[in-house]
Amino acid sequence: MEYRFNKDDLIERLSIWNGFLKRRVHLIACGGTALTLQDIKPSTKDVDLLVPNIKEYDYLINTLKELGYKPVSGHGWSKGDDLIFDLFRGKRIHTTELLESPLEAGNHILVKEFSSIILGALNHYDLIIGKLFRGTQVDMDDCLMLIKAKKPEIDIAKLGARFRETAKYETSEEAVIRNLEHFYRILKKEGLDNGQ
């Protein structure tokens, strides 16, 4: 059985990292990690974190290497256990480049402030965009879960406009737009489309 990472597990692991950091590092959770930290999803199988500031990213990676972490995939770092931390540099998640830095006002939700680590979750719009660009069934389910949990905070028209703007910079623009249209059909079926 694969290990699942819950909110307490993540906070505990980051508090260990925090104990070794001598400088401030901003971490912005994305993907299922952001949903888990906001108590929308009970757990996630890996941890997705954006480190928007490049100097902070380099410092964190050097510290993790000293703690015995090794690269295990494109963005993944692990200490040899089942826990993989995908650490994304700047404003790119997997292949999706966000329009703005997650550190700009309104682009993240503060989750917890440690002495060195400032932990946030990506704003709802960019979180949905990042997941819909990948477009797997799990991603669609997660987006639906987020909209059901945070419906008053999410404007579907604003989501569509931001999605299309982000998609302009994507090489597979048509494919990701199809993902959005498919997701709109799911929202309509669930009565969550706000007339879109």
Strand content: 15-25%
Q: Mean pLDDT, nearest integer?
A: 93
At the fold tier of CATH, the topology name of the largest domain is: Beta Polymerase, domain 2
* DSSP, total strands: 9
Helix content range: 40-55%
Order of helices and strands: HEHEHEEEEEEEHHHH
The CATH top-level class label of the largest domain: Alpha Beta
Strand order of the largest sheet: 3-4-5-2-1-9-8
Shape: globular
Rg over CA atoms: 17 Å
**What's the story with the biggest beta sheet?**
7 strands, mixed
Tally the helices: what do you get? 7
Defining key terms:
Beta Polymerase, domain 2, 2 domains, 196 residues, alpha+beta, two-stranded antiparallel ribbon, 9 strands, seven-stranded mixed β-sheet, globular
What do you see in this structure?
This protein has 196 residues and is an alpha+beta fold. The chain has helices at 7-20, 31-37, 54-66, 124-134, 137-150, 156-167, 173-190; strands at 25-29, 47-51, 70-71, 76-78, 85-89, 92-93, 96-97, 108-113, 117-122. α4 packs antiparallel against α5, α4 packs across α6 and α6 (156-167) packs antiparallel against α7 (173-190). The longest helix is centred in the C-terminal third of the chain and has 18 residues, at 173-190. The radius of gyration is 17 Å and the shape is globular.
